[in-house]
Amino acid sequence: ILKNINQFVSTIELKNRTSLYLNEKLSESESIDVEFKNYFFPFKPFQEEEIKEQICGMLNSKGGRIYIGINDEKIVKGILINYKQRDLVRNKIVNSTYEFFPSCRTKKIEVFFLPVKNFNTEAYRPSLFVIKIIVHQGETTRLYSLTSKKGYNAMIRLPGQVATLSAQEIEDEIIKR
Known about the structure:
Elements (H helix, E strand, L loop, with lengths): L1 H8 L10 E2 L12 E4 L7 H15 L4 E5 L10 E2 L2 H14 L3 E2 L7 E9 L6 E12 L9 E4 L2 E8 L2 E4 L2 H10 L1
Parallel strand pairs: 1-6, 2-3
Antiparallel strand pairs: 3-7, 4-7, 5-8, 6-7, 8-9, 9-10
């Protein structure tokens, strides 16, 4: 039965899914516009930083989607968060973009919570979600940076990862734009 469900749900593109199944193996892999993170809430500071870096990299590329609650093996694990925590997560992610230059607060970032179901019963797991962050492409005439104690760091998305641009790469990217 598990194989049949995987075959059925794999016909629906991940970006169009409105729910997922616990322990489902996804057919879509990480790519230049898809990133999976298997975090727990509350996020650790380094995880929050990684999310911001991914967002920055996607803004400087063609946009993309970050899924929190899916591991690197493409298995849906979900993240336990209640109703109040969902608001906290959404606000934390959107407000983290205050640290971006230029600003992109609400125009470029959307946060959704995809409920996670059991395979065999089709019942939703209480408070179990995959967080889906949609990052729209940034303005092509701008290069987005993440401010830190060390200054500004511009990132760009590569297949399955984000890279911090060197000074030469920043100059090349600005000239290209």
